[in-house]
Amino acid sequence: MGKMNKVIKGEVLKAHNDYRKKHGVPPLKLCKKLNRGAQLYAEELATTRVLKHSSESANGKCGENLAWASYDQSGKDVADRWYSEIKNYSFQNPGFSSGTGHFTAMVWKNTKKMGVGKASASDGSTFVVARYDPAGNVVNPGYYEENVLPPRK
C-alpha cells in the first residue's frame, strides 16, 4: 500500500506542476500533514463508497479534489481528468462553477502545498483525494481573476 501511494503522490504532483507552469503560476510542494489527511479521507471514501467532500473542505480548512474510478487510476489520469474542465471555464467571465471546480483548484495561483491520498475499495474501484493549502476557489468576486490565469500561448 505504502509504495503505491508514493508513486501516485509523485504522479499527481508532477501533473499539477506541469499544468501550473502552463498557467505561469508557482509549483506546489507535497505536505506530510496534507498527505496524511488526504490518505485517511481516501480510505474513508473507499469504505463508504460515497463520493462526497469532507467536512474539512466544507469548513474551508483546505481545498479538495476527489476522483473515483472503477479501475486502478494513475495519478496522471486523475489530474488530466480534473484539468480537462478547462474547456468549460470562461476566462472572460471568471468565477466558481461546479463544472470547473477541479480545474480551478489545480491552477489556483495562491495555493502553495498539496497532499494526495489513494485507496481501493473491495470491488477494485479506487478513490483519489487531493488537498490544497491555502484553499483556492474562494467564492468572492476578484479572487478568480487574480488566481486562475489563462494558459500561456
UniProtKB/TrEMBL annotation:
Q: Pull one GO CC term from this UniProt entry.
A: Golgi membrane
Protein name stated in the entry: GLI pathosis related 2
Quote the InterPro entries the UniProt record gives: Allrgn_V5/Tpx1_CS (IPR018244), CAP_dom (IPR014044), CAP_sf (IPR035940), CRISP-related (IPR001283), SCP_GAPR1-like (IPR034113)
Q: Which domain of life is it from?
A: Eukaryota
Record SMART domains: SCP
Q: Which residues form the SCP domain?
A: 7-140
Q: Which Pfam families match?
A: CAP (PF00188)
Source organism per entry reads Corvus moneduloides (New Caledonian crow)
